[in-house]
Structures are given as C-alpha cells and as structure tokens.
Amino acid sequence: MARQLGMGTTEFLARYADNGGTTLKNDAEGRCVFVTPEGCAVHPRRPLVCRLYPLGRAVDGQGGEKFGLFPRQEGCEADFGTDGSVAGFLASQGVAPYFEWARRYGEVYRRMLALLDRLGVEGKVEERDEGPGPVVPGGPAAPEAGAEPLSAWQDIDASFAAYCEAKGLAAPRGIAESIGLHLRAMGEWLDDLEARAGRDAPDDDERKDRP
Ligand code: SF4
After folding, report:
1. Which residue lies with its CA nearest to atom 6 of ligand 1?
2. What distance in angstroms lies between residue 190's CA and the mean position of ligand 1's atoms?
3. Number of other CB atoms surrounding residue 200 within 10 Å
4. I want to staple 51 with a disulfide (CB 3.0 to 4.6 A). Which of 8, 23, 93, 177 is the partner?
5. Rounded to the nearest 5 degrees, what angle is found at the Cα of 101, between the Cα atoms of 107 and 51?
C-alpha cells in the first residue's frame, strides 16, 4: 500500500495505520480511510483480507485451510453469490503471493512466540544494541495505539534500510525482494536470539521466581 501511494512504510504507518500499526485508520464515518467515491484508493495493492472478502480464511499451521462466507455488509457493492468456486474467486483476486507472504511471516511469528515462551518473557524483548531492534508488544517501549508501530519490524523500509547498511547490501527494489530481505533480517535476528537464549535461558525454578 505504501508503494501504491508513493511513500515509504515509515510515512505510511504514521499517516494511515492505527492500533500500533496493526489496522488501517477509519474516517469520521467509520469507513476505511482508503474508501473514495471511485472505490479503494489502494485497490491494486489492497491487503489480503480485502482481497478475500467476503470470504474469511482460517489456517491451522499444518497447511490446512478453511473458508467461510461473511454476511454482506450494508452498502457493499461487491458481487455476492454461490455460483462460482472458492478457487476461482481466489485466482480472480490475485491472492497467491499474499498467501505465500502470510505463510512465511506466520512461520517467523510462531518461531518468535516459541522463543519468547522458552525465554519466559511475557510481553517484551529488549531492543538490540545494533540494527533495527524489534520491540514485542506489552513493554514500556510499546505505544498505546496510533501512529507509532507496535514493533520496529512493522516499519519494513526502516528495518531493511538498517539491515542493508549493516550488511553492506544494496537496498531492495521490488516488493517481493523487499519482503524477502525483511524476512531474512528477522530470521537472522531470531537466530541471534536463539543463540543467546541457549546461553541465557532460565531454568524452571528461575522462571517461577521472576516477578
Ligand atoms: S478494499 Fe480494503 S483497503 Fe481498500 S477501501 Fe476497502 S477496506 Fe480499505
């Protein structure tokens, strides 16, 4: 969406994101900020959830997926019906790369949660000394809501700019390349945390004594 609007993710998050960067802002009538009389202002790059509507998708982490049908929203001009197939609808919405990116980000997310659980951390990982330090929600550095991203990792452009500078890499150009580098940077951050966790992980008694 940021690319569609000709801006970076830092500006996009500040201008159009809410709830710590996890949702899009609404206008005064409660509609998505990108609704215009001509339709969606970011239609070519609309998010996956918008591509899926009126379907909802649930995945189980083992490759299983289910789809459901949302009720029609009042005023929605989308075509509703049950004549077509789910596969045909998904193909028409160009969801394939979005599913793949969601799967890969999901893997990183689950890996991060498992690591936090292993470390006995509830809510926050401290920012690294170098690089785009991630901040997991819940700690004092996490904003309540609004323009600030909940995690530095959400600001993809800023994250991989710092990563590229640290690694002496050229900045990625395309969206797929940018996402690939972002995932790689997050993967390396988790590798580093896991290595440190191996050294620092508290045993069960230590965890029980923690406040
Ligand atoms: S398709 Fe999505 S991004 Fe576009 S106006 Fe609707 S809710 Fe907003």
Report:
1. 40
2. 33
3. 9
4. 93
5. 130
Distance CA(108)–CA(201), nearest Å, equals 20
CA–CA gap between residue 61 and residue 50 (Å, rounded): 21
Give the residues surrounding ligand 1 with Cβ less than 6 Å away. Answer: 24, 32, 34-35, 40, 42, 46, 50
Reduced to 3 states (helix: H, G, I; strand: E, B; else coil), residue 138 is coil
pLDDT value for 59: 85
Pocket test for ligand 1, best of 15, 24, 27 (most atoms within 8 A of CB): 24
Q: Are 57 and 13 in contact (CB under 8 A)?
A: no
Alpha carbon of 175 to ligand 1 centroid (Å): 19
Residue nearest to atom 4 of ligand 1 (CA): 40
Return d(Cα 190, Cα 107) in angstroms, integer.
Answer: 12
From 23, 29, 46, 77, the mutation candidate for ligand 1 (largest count of ligand atoms within 8 A of CB) is 46
Listed residue (189, 186, 190, 188) closest to 178, CA to CA: 186
| Token pair 């809510």: residue | 123
E runs forming strands in 16-64: 17-18, 23-24, 35-36, 39-40, 55-59
User: What backbone torsions phi and psi does residue 3 show, to the nearest 5 degrees?
Assistant: -65, -40
Element spanning 68, H or E: strand 65-69
118: left (phi over 0), alpha (psi -120 to 50) or beta: alpha
Tell me which residues of the chain have a pLDDT lower than 50: 125-146, 207-211
